[in-house]
Write a structure and sequence with these properties.
Layout (H helix, E strand, L loop, with lengths): L1 H9 L13 H35 L3 E3 L7 E4 L2 E4 L10 E9 L3 E5 L19 E2 L5 E4 L2 E10 L8 E12 L19 E5 L9 E5 L8 E6 L9 E9 L4 E8 L7 H29 L1
Parallel strand pairs: 1-11
Antiparallel strand pairs: 2-3, 3-12, 4-14, 5-13, 6-13, 7-8, 8-12, 8-14, 9-10, 9-11, 9-13
């Protein structure tokens, strides 16, 4: 009996399984608490890292082409220039989209109608054949070239902010969707380029908009982004201005058909030349008699 008491009191035996003088159940609670603290700290670290990553991804890329004629920028693989980087004569210019509204506007080219803020007539808004586009080599990469002529009215604020730019290819030139998808895209076929993937307006391009007849933005889109087996190219864009119209053109391999109004001065000039030549011949014939 004496031996048993001594064993219980002084030996390694402990009916609670104590460690360092603490009961087992209390020790277990402390360990669980430490484990929970470590898990909570790790969770907070993961959340903080995710928030930082989201902040980095959400940072806007703004290309400002108003600073100088040499201003440039790159968004999602597209090259933006304040002035044309190719010499004259490398391709013909084909206007295919004209849009006008205020304070925001949007539109795309199609033969199917005049969606959103598109303007009549169809000689300013029409389909574009993919096969008609000229290609340009920039630093060893082939690009298609599109040009924006921004025209904002008023005595001040001659700038335009491009907030959306999407290019598509399709086998029909008359598609006519009238609303955007939840992700900001539109049902115009195969998406080739998107200024703001997932929607939103975090990426943008700021251009001049004086209406002086010069291009305010020259955009190069890699040829490799396009589905070259499709027949037509669609350009959808949206932006912010003060009421003037914006016009997109493409560098193509073929000369566009002149507008009827543009032909009248030429016809008049030819008629005048012909009449003058005819009168001179009659005068010469009279003198010779």
């Amino acid at each position: 009996m004496t031996l048993r008491l001594n064993y219980d009191k002084y030996g390694n035996h402990n009916k609670w399984g104590a460690e360092n003088g603490k009961p087992a159940n209390k020790l277990k609670m402390e360990k669980n608490k430490m484990k929970a603290t470590r898990i909570t700290s790790l969770g907070a670290l993961v959340i903080a890292a995710g928030a930082l990553l989201f902040t980095v991804n959400a940072q806007a890329t703004v290309v400002d082409l108003t600073t100088s004629l040499s201003a440039t920028g790159n968004i999602n693989g597209a090259l933006f220039f304040a002035s044309d980087q190719q010499p004259a004569g490398t391709g013909f210019i084909d206007p295919f989209l004209r849009v006008q509204a205020s304070p925001t506007e949007q539109g795309y080219n199609t033969d199917g109608g005049f969606p959103f803020d598109d303007k009549n007539p169809h000689n300013f808004q029409h389909s574009v054949l993919l096969s008609s586009l000229a290609t340009f080599d920039v630093a060893g990469t082939s690009y298609f070239k599109f040009m924006l002529d921004a025209n904002q009215s008023g005595t001040s604020n001659h700038t335009f902010t491009l907030t959306q730019l999407q290019l598509y290819t399709a086998n029909s030139g008359s598609l006519l969707p009238m609303s955007l998808n939840p992700d900001g895209t539109i049902a115009l076929g195969n998406l080739a380029y998107n200024l703001n993937p997932g929607g939103g307006t975090t990426n943008s391009v700021l251009t001049t908009a004086t209406g002086s007849g010069k291009y305010d933005a020259v955009v190069y889109i890699p040829v490799s982004d396009f589905n070259l087996s499709d027949k037509y190219v669609y350009l959808y864009f949206a932006g912010q201005g003060n009421g003037g119209f914006e016009e997109w053109t493409a560098a193509t391999l073929t000369a566009p058909i002149p507008e009827a109004s543009a032909l009248f001065p030429i016809v008049g000039l030819l008629a005048a030349i012909f009449s003058t030549h005819f009168l001179r011949r009659r005068q010469m014939a009279r003198i010779s008699k």
